[in-house]
């Protein structure tokens, strides 16, 4: 992925987490666990899918 797109997506994720906590919709723990869950799903799918089944980037 391009570096600027990665920075944009990380920034969006961080600002969304901040907005959710600041707006009293979630606890900090909820946001951190959501990030951990998303990272875990990505890591499992990256290792678990055969090379030919992965989409080309």
Quick take:
The protein is mainly alpha-helical and 57 residues long. It has helices spanning 3-22, 28-48.
Detailed description of the structure:
There is one protein chain. The termini are close together. The longest helix is centred in the middle third of the chain and has 21 residues, at 28-48. This protein has helices at 3-22, 28-48. The chain has one domain (3-53). The protein has two helices and no strands. It is flat and about 45 Å long. The protein has 57 residues and is mainly α.
Largest sheet, strands/sense/barrel: none
Integer count of domains: 1
Low-confidence stretches: none
Helix content: over 70%
Please give a handful of descriptors for the protein shown:
57 residues; mainly alpha; 2 helices; flat
Give the SSE layout.
Elements (H helix, E strand, L loop, with lengths): L2 H20 L5 H21 L9
